[in-house]
Amino acid sequence: MSTGAEREPDAAGSEPDAPAIEPDAPESEPDPPATEPDAPGSELATPTSTPGSPAHTRRESRIPLLTAATSAVCALLFTALTTLIVVRHGQPLPGDAALHDWARAHRPPVALALGRAVTATGTGVWPYLLAVLAGAFAWRGAPARGRLKGAVLALAVLVAGQLIRTGLMELIARARPARHDWATQASGHSFPSGHATTSAIVAGLLCWAARRTVTRVIAVSWALAVGLTRIELGVHWPTDVLAGWLLATAWLLALHTATPRFRAPRLPTTDDPTPAPRRIRRVTPLPPRATRRQTGPTSGEPELPVLRAWVVTARPH
């Protein structure tokens, strides 16, 4: 049986800063390192905008509400504009005639040729082809059946919007500007503009499928250019074009809010610029008894702690 006096030489011969080891402490692997909450200003902290975080969840929950509100505002504006047209029996609203005359007086031959080329992309087969490509591209990375589903869905959205626009055009039956002001051929009634409505719906589908901001800017700019050429060529009143934009926006946002299938799946692809979120755990260094020394760099730089799953190498005391 050992006594306290016999244990004194061992304690005296040990290093002064070494902690005393209890007799019944087993020599086993250290306990798992304790985790600390991520510090907002630390490089090791996980960004608050990563999917699944509370901030990201709150932001995602607000998107349907904002979309529904924007759709309702566009629908109300379109309804108010339509009411004014009906009350005035299709006569130009204040500002329509002035903008029409200004556009007719400022269209040189080069602008007319460019306007005819741009306005031709807003009718015929081109909008339907772009809608099909947008739907298929929205499901990129999915099997062929999924891409076909996206193409059919986008085409159905465009066709349904065209039916709504045609019905309103026949119901309101607003006359176009005088024929001698036209710089291209046109048919049917004037309100709302078919070119403006069609190009805006297609631009919305392209923005729905695109992931890069530059692609969305190009799509929206194209739709605006198509609508403005209808005013330049003298075949529509400015309020016809504005009504087409409002109708298309209200239609697309209403579908996005009410129909979950209208939202394309976010499938992981090789061209996706968004990297997968990576979470790094912060650990608390273990007591000196459970650490091992690491030889520092020869350049004189301070040693850095190396974090492992179960082993923590810290700077020696």
Q: Can you characterise this structure?
A:
With 317 residues, the protein is an all-alpha fold. 52% of the residues lie in helices and 1% in strands. It has a domain at 66-262: Vanadium-containing Chloroperoxidase, domain 1. It has a two-stranded antiparallel sheet. A hairpin with a 4-residue loop joins strand 1 (306-307) and strand 2 (312-313).
Compressed to H and E, one letter per element, the order equals HHHHHHHHHEE
Task: Classify the fold: give the CATH topology of one domain.
Answer: Vanadium-containing Chloroperoxidase, domain 1
Number of strands: 2
Major sheet: size, sense and barrel closure?
A: 2 strands, antiparallel
Amino-to-carboxy terminus distance: 35 Å
Q: What percentage of the residues does DSSP assign to strands (E)?
A: under 5%
Q: Which structural class do the helices and strands define?
A: mainly alpha
Set down the secondary structure blueprint.
Elements: H1 4-13, H2 54-87, H3 96-105, H4 109-120, H5 126-138, H6 144-172, H7 194-209, H8 213-232, H9 238-258, E1 306-307, E2 312-313
Antiparallel strand pairs: 1-2
Helix pairs in contact: 2-9, 4-8, 5-6, 5-7, 6-7, 7-8, 7-9, 8-9
